[in-house]
Amino acid sequence: EKGGYEHFMLKEMYEQPKAVSDTLSPRIKGNRIVIEELGMSDEEIRSIRKIYIIACGSAFHSGMTNKYVFEGLARIPVEVDLASEFRYRDPIFEPDTLVIIVSQSGETADSLAALREAKAHGVPVLGIVNVVGSSIAREADHVMYTWAGPEIAVATTKAYSTQLIAQYLLALKFAQVRGTVTDEELEEMIQDLKELPDQIEMLLNNKEKIQHFANRYIAARDVFFIGRGIDYAISMEGSLKLKEISYIHSEAYAAGELKHGTISLIEDGTLVAAVLTQESLYKKMISNIEEVRTRGAFVLAVTNVGNHEVEKTADYVIYIPKTNRYFTNSLAIIPLQLFGYYVAIGKGCDVDKPRNLAKSVTVE
Ligand code: M6R
C-alpha cells in the first residue's frame, strides 16, 4: 500500500505534484478562477471586510502564508489564529467578516469548536478541508476541498501543499471579483500556478543532495529556521516538520527578531536554515545570515535561482525555480520537508508514526 516507498511520508511527498495539480486544475478556466462549489455571490465577496483564518498545526501555517497572499492580492485584512486560542478569547465578530477554517481531517476538535463559535455569532464560515464529508465540511456554510487524497503519515506534506494552493485560488478569486489585480496580472499568476506541479517534481528529484546534507545533522541539538514575511511562515512549517518526526529541537524565527533574544542560542556549528525568496528582503536577510555566521552558525539557505549574492554568505545553498513571489512557499517547503524526513530516517525514527502524536486531534 506504500506503493514501493519506504514510508507513507515519502510516498505522500512524491504525490504532491499530482495533489497540487488536482487541486488547481478544476478551478482554472482559461484565464479565470472559477470555484464552482464555493457558493458565494460576487456581491458577498465584494462585501468582505475582514477574514479570520483559523486552524491548528500545519494548517495554521498555511494560513500564516496566506495572510500575505489575501492581503497582498485581494487587499482584505486577515487575522490568522490558532483554533485553540481563538475559541477562548472572546473574538470580535463584526458584520462582513468571513471565517475560514483550514483542516486536513475536518475533525480537529478545536477547529470544529471555532467553526461553531463563529456560526453561533452569525458569521459565515468557509471550510478548506481534505476529508470529504468530515464534520467541518458538513457544518461549514461553504466548502472548498483540497484534493490531496488520503493522507496517512502523521506529518502532513501533500495536504499542507494543497491547503496553500486552495487559499491562493481563493485569494485570486476574491482579487478577480474585487478588481484588485489586473487581467494581465491574473493571467501571469495563473500561468505560474500551472507550472508549480512540474517545479515541485523537479525539487523532489533533488532529494539525494538533501539527504546527503541531512545526514550531517542527525546529531544536531537545536536547529533554527529564519525568514521574513512569507518566508517566516514557511520557516514555521519547516521547523515543525523537523521537530515532529526527528525530535530535534527547532524554532522558527522572524529573522528581524533574532537579535531580540534567540541569537544568544547560536553556538559554533548550530544549523540555521534561512529562507529568502522575497527579492525585496534579500539584503535584510543577508545581513541576518551574516549576524548568525559571525556567531559560528552553519547556514543553509533556500533561495530563488539566480540569487548569487547569497552564495557569498551562506555555507550551503538550495535553489528553487522561479515563480510569482506569492507562491514561493509551495516550492520552498519541498527541500524543508525532505530535510526533516532524512534527518529523522538517519536517526532511525518512526517517521510515519512519531511518538505522542495522532493524525487527527479530536480531543480538546
Ligand atoms: O487535520 P488538521 O489539518 O485539522 O490537523 C491540524 C494539525 O493537527 C496537523 O497539521 C499537525 O500539526 C500535523 N502533525 C503537522 O504535520
From TrEMBL:
Domain SIS span(s) in chain numbering: 41-180, 213-354
GO biological process terms, semicolon-separated: carbohydrate metabolic process; fructose 6-phosphate metabolic process; protein N-linked glycosylation; UDP-N-acetylglucosamine metabolic process
Transmembrane annotation, as ranges: none
Subcellular location: Cytoplasm
Catalytic residues (UniProt): 359
Location (main, coarse): cytoplasm
GO cellular component labels: cytosol
One Gene Ontology MF term: glutamine-fructose-6-phosphate transaminase (isomerizing) activity
Enzyme Commission identifier(s): 2.6.1.16
Top EC class for this record: transferase
Keyword Repeat included in the entry's annotation: yes
Catalytic reaction(s) noted: D-fructose 6-phosphate + L-glutamine = D-glucosamine 6-phosphate + L-glutamate
Coiled coil: none
Key words of the record: Aminotransferase, Cytoplasm, Glutamine amidotransferase, Repeat, Transferase
Described function: Catalyzes the first step in hexosamine metabolism, converting fructose-6P into glucosamine-6P using glutamine as a nitrogen source.
Assembly and oligomerization: Homodimer.
Name of the featured protein: Glutamine--fructose-6-phosphate aminotransferase [isomerizing]
Organism: Diplocloster agilis
Gene name of this polypeptide: glmS
Residues of the full protein shown: 245 to 608 of 608
